[in-house]
Amino acid sequence: MSKKAFIFLPDGVGLRNFALTNFNAIGTTLGYEMVYWNNTPFKIKEELGYDEVNITNHQLHPWTTVYTRARKRCELNVFDKKFKETVYNTYNFPQSYKGIKNIIKSLNVDFLVATKSTEKGVESIRTKIKKLERSTSKYEYCKKQLLEHKPDIVFCTNPRPTQAIAPILAAQDLGIPTASFIFSWDNLPKATTLIEPDFYFVWSDYMKKELLQYCPYVQPEQVFVTGTPQFESHFDTSLLQSKEDFYKSHHLDLEKKYICFSGDDIVTSPLDQYYLEDLAISVRELNQQGYNLGIIYRKCPVDFTNRYDAVLQQYQDVIVSIDPLWRPVGTSWNEIMPTKEDFALQSNICEHTEFVGNIASSMVFDFVAHDKSCLFFDYEQPQLQKGIRDIGQNYRYIHFRSMPNKEAALFVYDKKELTSIVKAILDGKQSNVPVGKKWFDVVVGMEPTKASENIWEGINSIVKK
């Protein structure tokens, strides 16, 4: 008798790992009836041919946003006190006080933060959020869908969205086992896990330790260490083109060596375009010294700004843009959907460039999977002024403490040193790959090619209980 798994997509983040990889094929082979419980605008049946049940009711309780915002801020306050830190609150972003609705919401959040920033206070907020969401029409709507389709498990692909709360509660109240995948390496110290499923799937032992540290209501037996499908494509050699074919398909100069600049979103790196310009200036300098270099600029898929345009125009002699193969199916950042083709594109960029330069991105792991170095910019730009976020803050975040040591990446602390560091990487005199691989193992886990299989093993063991 076949088992039915609801793969719950509260937003588009989970598509990449669980709809565009071999995850579906593995589940089908194991005898599962795979159904995507789809809260996104992406048409899974039409685009991919997979069965789906669409969630068309997106109503949150009017107070849920207030309480979830307050929960994060209170948890971060608790973390700072509990672990004797000041860094956790830097994960917060300023609230808006523009317009009556925003003022009312923000003042209520402020009141809750002032009165509930204790472990008991956080527990009361968690309880309140569940009570609020159980009272919504979305909760009843999801309950009805679950009663109709009778899945054996609900597997949530991303624990962060408020839209995930009511569906998971509905499943739990019907006695259906629930699980969630921690999708990013920085989710846990940021206090962004809003749902409380029966089981959790994490990348590595390091992440399991974090989960138990930051979510004291979770027990070790609820956690599966599986790896993440995010990096599986980098080990699939069938995706790789020859250098000649890759260069030809993107109109690159076969005589040049290219460096990848991986763009960041405007929140992480608001002055990102100036770091691209600095790299372009260094490339021009090295070309005058006899090198023959270019830059491939891969934009952040969810960056909608035109802030790079002037730099791309001014340095078009050395910079070539190769955009990610993502496409919008909505208007917000989590409605920009990846494609299968982008797996191959990203792997080929890693394979056919010399190294990557960026700001604090997990692209360090993508490149080290191809035995390529990563250069992290860590100096201020002269354009930095009050109200603009300093990128140096990124490297002080808790998730960067997972580095075995500072040699896990190549840091540039002074713009004047950039050209010499780039030259040293190209000449084989500097590399972070040996320590970077150790960092990869710590964060991603020891079996990067088996993540999808490991996740299914976990799902299977839950369903059999």
TrEMBL record:
<protein>
    <recommendedName>
        <fullName>UDP-glycosyltransferase</fullName>
    </recommendedName>
</protein>
